[in-house]
Amino acid sequence: MARSSALRIGPRRFELVVLDGSAKRHKISAYHVGEFDAEAAAGFAEGDVAGVAAALKDAAKSHRIPSDNVSVVMATDHAAFRRVTLPFTDRAKIDQVLRYEIESELPQFDIDEVMVDYHIMRENEQGAELLVSAVPKEDIQTVIAACEKAGSEPLEIELEGTAIVNAAFAADMCHIDDAQLLVHVGEHSTSVAVVAGGELREFRVIHIGAMTHLAHELDDVQSGVDDDADGEAEGADASSASDPAQIERRVEQAVKRIKRELGRTISAARTAQPIEAIHVAGTELPGLVGSEVLGVPVYVLDCFEEDSGQPADGFGQLVASYGGAVRQLGGGPLKPSLRREELRYTG
Prior knowledge:
This protein is of the alpha/beta class. The protein has ten helices and 14 strands. The strands form three sheets. A six-stranded mixed beta sheet has the order 11-10-9-12-14-13. Strands 3-2-1-4-8 form a five-stranded mixed beta sheet, with helices on both faces. The chain has a three-stranded antiparallel beta sheet with strand order 5-7-6. The two termini are 28 Å apart. The relative contact order is 0.18. Residues 225-230 have low confidence and may be disordered.
């Protein structure tokens, strides 16, 4: 029986899923959801992976999660997505020219400091239309370093967006006659995929997540804020931000902003079919699932078969890591590779 495992690493949380079986028929044999403490998360944001690696290693050991054959799903926080049309379809040629073709579309990046990946949306005799993703190499290298220090080098790395798309397709949720948004709410960002006519149409990232309101904790750890005179103002801000009423208000604001951006995505979507549903995975936000955006209902992204080993509650937070594990078994239409250049170089 084939076995696959995948790990989603975010700036504050992580999820592990192990599958036994095949792409068509499998069960969850192990899973774990964990959260990094503020010190580990602050170090991770600065490139210090020791705290994060220790948490990952402890989780794998306590839940007997295998350290080999692991795929990693990383946060979409600093990723960018663009559409590119090329006058040919040959993969080798695309690999050769894509970096140069996309450079002018990514003014926020030094093109030599990002990893570029792509998905071919359409191809014919005139050429290929690509959906391109760009991720800072530094972010990828930090994730790899955390996994290696925890005792497991990733087989492959992808973004949350591609993982939830593969999870939804593996569950036969996307058909030729319908359209939907697939959403992953991360800690500091939210990934959105537009799927219509049984095909991926668009990716975008909303730069707000379920734990954006806790960003002050990381700032305080990184800057060494204490109770001295210089830290009084910062301490007062942190105290205010930690007040339950303030936290509730900020979470409500986050939900409103995410819903507003989802509404813009629906309005701008170029799909032949009307968008009929929004399926949400990742960290739970009160007031999101069960609501509507421009009349479109919001559901939890339930890609699991009944009694397939998932938890009864909170299974939405496992969808991204589940999608990574499904792809490793050969499921899903997307074959992302954020280690493309590195693996090609090492042979």
